[in-house]
Amino acid sequence: MKTIKTICLSVLLACALPVLALDLQQAMQALGPAKAQGLLGEQPNGYLGVVQSSAQASEIAELINKARKAEYQKLAQQNGIALADVEAMAGQKAIEKTAKGQYVQLGGQWQKK
Q: What is the pTM of this model?
């Protein structure tokens, strides 16, 4: 009987875990606080990077980077330029817009702006 309860509980938890995952809107809402806490930073390649490892920081970065890449690909195609060029321009702009005290990656190293 105890084994059956354990199995049932495991199945319920496994079903509930996807519900706990963030969606893009939640990731966007969590981005500002994550950057302010020093968990995430902007990279020259136009994507977020994880400064201090945490499961939520990685999930936020993954979701937002996926959305950014889709947008960069669209812009590259619309303008007839290489994806890498769009990424580089976006990265430069993101680094310029990063608030003082937040992290940016320069020369491969994380630095507070």
A: 0.79
